[in-house]
Amino acid sequence: xxxxxxxLLDDIIAARADKVTAWFDARFDETPALPYSSVDxxxxxxxxxxxxxxxxxxxxxNISRAARGRAADRFRNHLARIAPEGGRLxxxxxxxxxxxxxxxxxxxxxxxxxxxxxxxxxxxxMYDLDEAMVLETATGADIxxxxxxxxxxxxxxxxxxxxxxVLMNNDMTAGAPSILVxxxxxxxxxxxxxxxxxxxxxxxxxxxxxxxxxxxxxDIDPWLIQALWHQCGQINFREKAGLGCVARGVDKVVHxxxxxxxxxxxxxxxxxxxxxxxxxxxxxxxxxxxxxDILEMNKKTRHKMNVIKEGALNTEVIVQEGVPxxxxxxxxxxxxxxxxxxxxxxxxxxxxxxxxxxxxxxNAMGAYFTQMCDEVEPRIxxxxxxxxxxxxxxxxxxxxxxxxxxxAREQVI
Length: 413
What we know:
single chain; alpha+beta; Rossmann fold; 18 strands; 31% helix; 23% strand; GshA; ligase; Glutamate--cysteine ligase; glutamate-cysteine ligase activity; EC 6.3.2.2
């Protein structure tokens, strides 16, 4: 019988709660948390591992009312450290004027920060916007997005609103916006953590250090809380350049995973995800079981892997151990997504994708979101009835917190 990761971690949290809290506090004292993040987790029963960490989270509209309240409390703490005398915040969103669900995320994020006691305005990076624009969100609510004006080292809106803090909700795939470079006001997260510069390999390198330290402190196998990975650069999928490195990386990760499967008595075949080393939105992702799958890739798959968000070429990839999901919502494969503010879990939801299976990437066309239990205190217990289910939120939150700590460390590695 395999050791199940959720009860294992829950036992640690229950028996050594003060020590777990102190462990995180000490490390966030050394490396202060970023304002917010979201972590995609995969739970196979035996292991629970982060597979993606987004620093410009776009799903605040999917977390519960209670989670939004916790987020407001954490934002209040975080912003008080950044600007102790401040009270005005400029939120800079993506230029997704047609993505109504994203716009609802912006509305809810602004509402959360207003609940933390700050005045919030929305500033657009659209170069041709010369007057305020009202946009309707997925719920029929309106948000007002304003053009920006810079004077010297300070940014503000055309009508004279000058923020104490600039909060990015734009992942900057295309580069750091010149209007925001070198500001006197704090910009959080830092522009340098945009996808034009940030790499998943950098994040998972930092995460490996964090996970190893946590595992040593609490006496568990670090493989149970992280996915193995390998990085390759100098790739051109269209021209088939650099694919040998990717193929060797696939074989390496599959081999190492198979060794762990033998150790834990797991009988299924290991597999990997090949992902763009930068960017989000589930673009530039494929699965493989051997290096031959890479070398025999057809033209359609190579074309899909060649370009990611905003037309950026995909020239660097990570080969990441595939973690099959055992989580199901209404019979469909699901994966937990945890939202953190100031490094602490505040809530989350499940990403579900009808028609996709336990081995597939669920962050793809057809995905939808459903709320998860986000009670902080209850322990995981065996289900006592057909309608009873454990509440694993605090376990998800601890592993998500490890990813948030790794994200904070990306700046200093």
